[in-house]
Structures are given as structure tokens and as C-alpha cells.
Amino acid sequence: MIVLKLILESFNFAFSSLKENKLRTFLSLIGITIGIMTIIGVFSAVDTLRNNLQSSVDKLGSNTIYIQKWPWEFGGDYQWWKYMNRPSPTLRDFEKVKERITNAEAVSYNVWAGNRTIKYKSSSVEGAQISAVTHDFYMTWNFDLDDGRYFSEAESKAGSPVTLIGYSVAEGLFPGQRAVGKVINVLGRKLVVIGVFAEEGEDMLGTSADKTVLLPLNFARNVIDIQSEQYGPEISVRGKPGVPVEELESELRGIMRSVHRLSPLQDDSFALNKSTILTAQLDSMFAVVNLAGGVIGIFSILVGGFGIANIMFVSVKERTNIIGIQKSLGAKNYFILLQFLIEAVVLCLMGGLIGLAIVYLLAFVLHLVADVDIIVDISKVVLMFILSTAIGLISGIIPAFMASRLDPVEAIRSK
Description:
Elements: H1 2-20, H2 22-58, E1 64-68, H3 80-84, H4 91-100, E2 104-120, E3 123-133, H5 137-140, E4 145-148, H6 153-158, E5 162-165, H7 167-173, E6 183-186, E7 189-197, E8 212-216, H8 217-220, E9 234-239, H9 245-259, E10 271-274, H10 275-318, H11 320-328, H12 333-370, H13 378-404, H14 408-413
Parallel strand pairs: 3-8, 5-7
Antiparallel strand pairs: 1-9, 1-10, 2-3, 2-9, 4-7, 5-8, 6-7
């Protein structure tokens, strides 16, 4: 109880001093407010960017492997011309993988033809992404439908003139109308719309389905060369639930090396890409960004801390005679020390709270104006309290110690 009473009295002295010197208190708060706002703002911006990029990566599927010509990550001493000489995945590769794989839930063959114009009567949409896929594509790629349905197995096998279109394509061709059942012109052919993808919005990796036009592969093979490298052919393999992606990758590597008839000494003539590659790249990239943001924030906080320390020295100088009176009346050294330490910590906490409030306000304004969701999680609030308290203790310890060691007689006479 005595300790609690001493702490409460120290708080009262600290608040009284802050209220008596409002302008000085305000100026002291500016430095620490800017410091906390900077470091929390930088970390929140980085977290937001990281979250958006990770959401884009997650669409690829954590247990899906993409067999492609080019790797998503270059490393080692592998010369670029060796990548150039690799063959693109073929339908034969697809059939062999589908036939031999044991750890896969689904295998699909996909090609892409970008920047195409889609027409419906007098309306048109430019910049559409044409995708031609085998039937199991719906099992290897994550998407939702806003209306209609996916291809039936019979439609995929027969190469029926049917298509699924993205939300933006549907809005551009059929504003205020239902797209399902309409006949559109794609690659010079007439196709019936049987489904519309749910709106996804533009993501950080450009994997949105909003401008996608999905065709059965057996229909597209009559219009384009589905094995041509210019259409980026790839084989998507989604593992069975519970099968580690490393185990699936190992099996796929064995199958593909066998299909390509590679000797044990030959390098792979294909790339096995997976979302963990991108996640690892994000981790390394954002580790650097976080470090840079932390350094900037620390320097900002140090500036605020020096400001607090300077104000505390001034405060000790101004209240020297009061300290002498308190000590002459029996105040212990630790009481004087605690009084000034609490004043410094309170100043820093007030500045930190204001800085955090500004970050939340900016996040709210950005959400209203630009529809950007800034992530400010609870860990940043905890970080604010820890940093503010630490800066307050560090900034106030020397002035507080000097105040506690003053001689009461000399202190009283200083007036």
C-alpha cells in the first residue's frame, strides 16, 4: 500500500508539472509523436503490402506445383541459354504425368493468350486474358463463380463452344444484364457464356480472374497452337490433402525426368514452381524492408528521446527548490527519482498514443478515399507502449537521478 501510494503521489506531481507547462509539454510531445508515428506507420505499410502480396500468392495454392519452362527463381551457375533451350510442357508430358502420378488430386494443362478483344454485338472489351484449360482446371486453381456453372466433362472432351468470363468482361459487355446464355465473339469464334467468375479486384501479382475468358482446351486447339511457347503452356498439379508439397515435387521430378529421358548426370529440362518459392522471396525482401523501416523509425524516436531528456533537465533546474523542500520534509531519494521518471514516461506515452491515433486516422482516411485497407494490428499497439516506456525511462533516468541526489539545503537556497 505504501509503494502504491508513493507511485500515485509521483503521478500527481508529474501531471501537475505537465499541466503547469502546457506549451513545453506540447513541444516535447511533437518529437516523440513523430517518432512513434513514423515507426508504426512504416511497419503498418510494410505489413499491408506483405499481406496483399501474400494473398495473391495464396491464390496459387499452397499444395499446387506448376510444371513450366522457366523457373520463378534463378540461382546458381545455370546459364540463361540453357533455360532458353528447354522445351515447353507438351500435351504428351501432361498425359504421362496424369497417368503416372500417385500423390496428385488433379492435373490440368493450361495455355494463355493475353491482351485480346472480346465482342458482343456493338460492345467490346479490350485487354482480356484468354485461358484454355483441360477439365480438371477447376481442381487446380482457386476461384469462385458469381453466376452460372463450370464446364461439364462432356463439354471439355467435345471442345464445345462454351466459355466462362471474368466479372469485368461481363460488366463491359452486358452492363445491367445477365451474361449467362449470351453468345460472344472470342478469337473469331462464337461461344456461349455459361458462367461468370466472382469479382476479385486487381491483386499485386496480376492473377485476378476479372478479365479472364476461360475456354475448353479441346475447343482452343482448333483456333490456336496450344503447344506453342508463345502461349505459355504449363501443367498444374495439385497434391492430395495431407501430402507434403516436397513429396509431390519429388515424385513429379522423377516422372518428368523419365518422360524427358534425362540421364542422372543431366540437368532438369523443366521447372517445378510452387508458391513457397514466392513466399521465401517475400520473406527475404520484407526482412530488408523491415530493417530499413526500423532504422528510420529508431532515428526518429531518438530525436524525440533527446527532446524529452532536454525538457527533463530543464524541469529539474526549474524545480530544484521544490525538490529541496520535499527532501527536507522527509522525501526519499527514490521518491524524487520516481517522480521525474514517471513524468518522462507519461510524456512519451502521451506522444506514442497521439502518434498511434494519427496512424489509425490516416488508415481510416485512406480506406475512405482510396479503398486501401491498412493493417495496424495489436502487436503495433504493444510495440508503441514498449517503445514509449523504454524511451521515457532512458530519457528521464539521468535527470531523475540528478534530481534525487540534490542536497536539500543547496536545493532550497537555489531559488
